[in-house]
Amino acid sequence: MSGSTNINERIERIQAINNIKNLKFKYWNACDSKKPADILDCFYSENIYINFEDFGIFSSAQDMVKKYEFYSCHPHLIEQHTGKNPIIKLLSSNEASGFWSMSYSLIDTLKNIGLNITGTYEDLYVCNENNNWLIKETVFKKRTSMYRSVSSGQCSNPRLARSLGAKKTI
User: Fold this and answer.
1) 3-state secondary structure 118-145
2) For the whole model, what pTM was predicted?
């Protein structure tokens, strides 16, 4: 019986890790598709911590999504988040940590500029009473950023891990 328990536990762990990967994909896809309600669905409802460097520090997913809607939900902004190399560690049956590499591309068709950012996400996930994994903490650390003119095709003003502005706790 212990062999089948071990296999069942391993299957549950694999399923949990897969569910967490799907959650992160759902989050990035919701950001790229401009779906604020879907973004909110990815977060735990209380005691959360979000630190997105230049975009701000938040203790409420609703506050982060309000700012996201104001600055990002425009048809002239084309975004793509690409996550890769996830390292997911199950800390318990209802808690896990995650580390991801991420590349972000933005094209602003009004300003004719492009932005590329690379960095890492460090997350804490929790599994709620409905057996859904949710983001409880997420910290993005930028490695590189580069602006470029879309019309000329030339890269201008490359910045290596330089802040794009002041962050504010909300």
Assistant:
1) EEEEEEEEEECCCCCEEEEEEEEEEEEE
2) 0.85
* Contact between 65 and 157 (Cβ < 8 Å): no
In a domain, 165, yes or no: no
Residue 132 belongs to some domain of the structure? yes
Question: The domain containing residue 92 runs over which residues?
Answer: 2-159
Question: CA-to-CA distance for 27 and 23, rounded, in angstroms?
Answer: 6
| Sequential pLDDT tens for the chain (170 residues) | 456 669 999 999 999 999 999 999 999 999 999 999 999 999 998 899 999 998 999 999 999 999 999 999 999 999 999 999 999 999 999 999 999 999 999 999 999 999 999 999 999 999 999 999 999 999 999 999 998 887 755 555 444 444 444 444 44
131: domain CATH number is 3.10.450.50
